[in-house]
Write a structure and sequence with these properties.
Length: about 160
């Protein structure tokens, strides 16, 4: 078991030369959550055969092996920050939810569905949290317009 696990670990590196790659984008806010999509679009032939690797800049974000979530090998940075949707696995949906977002989470995530030779690349952008009540503040262009109206009134 241990041997087979470590062998599977290196599979994604060379498996996808002829595989399919899909590109997606996602946006999240500092301290917030984001769902990163990854789906094969069809039910896997066997649950036990499922092997999915989520990686980000050389780190293991999330691993599903033999149809089960494996915390072994997951980078400490992602411990307790990743949620999955095990009910969706049987539909071939291996999307994850990343919580407590940080600036360092930005960048490209690769979801490799090993058995399907399918890779999803999800580009995540991280933004500052929107300031509450920002919408009620007068916008700069409104102030500028008001000033120019005032000037026009004074000159003429
Ligand atoms: C996969 O599951 C997630 C979480 O439930 C959901 O948001 C997403 O729409 C699903 N994607 C597909 C292709 O079904």
């Amino acid at each position: 078991m241990e041997m087979r696990y470590s062998q599977l670990f290196f599979l994604p590196v060379f498996l996808f030369i002829n595989g399919v790659s899909l590109q997606k984008t996602a946006v999240g806010f500092i301290g917030g959550s984001v769902v990163l999509p990854c789906s094969s679009g069809k039910p896997p032939s066997t649950v036990q055969g499922i092997a999915v690797f989520w990686r980000h800049s050389g780190q293991n974000v999330f691993i599903i092996i033999y149809g089960e979530v494996s915390e072994k090998g997951q980078d400490p940075e992602y411990k307790n920050r990743v949620e999955s949707f095990p009910e969706e696995f049987k539909r071939g949906n291996f999307s994850i939810k990343l919580n407590n977002l940080q600036h360092t989470d930005a960048g490209e995530y690769k979801c490799s569905i090993v058995t399907e030779e399918l890779v999803w690349r999800v580009k995540l952008s991280i933004k500052e949290k929107p300031i509450p009540g920002e919408g009620t503040e007068p916008r700069p262009e409104m102030i500028l317009m008001f000033i120019s109206i005032l000037y026009t009134a004074i000159i003429f």
